[in-house]
Design a protein that fits this description.
Blueprint (H helix, E strand, L loop, with lengths): L6 H4 L6 E2 L5 H11 L3 E4 L9 E4 H9 L10 H4 L6 E3 L4 H10 L4 E6 L2 E7 H7 L3
Parallel strand pairs: 1-2, 4-5
Antiparallel strand pairs: 2-3, 5-6
């Protein structure tokens, strides 16, 4: 029997977390420098949850609405809450889970800690028959 690819095998461990009050322009520059398409937004307190902002959010909610990148804050355009998957979840189930919710990214959890992010693109690019 072949080994099933797990989320930990395809996740991005070089993910970035930011504060929601940051300006979109600053975070976009950070994303360009790190060559990443999504960032996690830190919870404000122990009763809050993680958010996520993607390049698609910037395109749709800032550029598409003719807003200024340096005037918009992350918390205004992020999505919340972020889906999460366990690091040992088989990739086929994770792909189905994300597509069922029509999202491209999820944070990866291991021992109640966020250890990475996983994307549909990453799953497809690393999939082997």
């Amino acid at each position: 029997m072949t080994d099933i690819l797990k989320v930990r095998d395809v996740m991005m461990s070089n993910f970035t977390k930011v504060d929601g009050v940051m300006k979109v322009s600053d975070v976009l520059n950070m994303m360009r420098d790190k060559n990443i398409n999504a960032i996690l937004v830190e919870p404000r307190d122990e009763n809050d949850v993680y958010g996520i902002m993607t390049l698609k959010d910037i395109a749709r909610k800032v550029i598409g609405e003719n807003r200024k990148l340096h005037e918009a804050h992350i918390y205004e355009i992020m999505s919340k809450p972020v889906l999460s998957v366990k690091s040992d979840m088989p990739v086929p189930y994770a792909a189905r889970f994300l597509t069922n919710f029509n999202v491209s990214y999820a944070m990866v959890i291991e021992s109640n800690d966020v250890i990475g992010m996983v994307s549909l693109n990453g799953m497809v690019n690393r999939w082997k028959d």
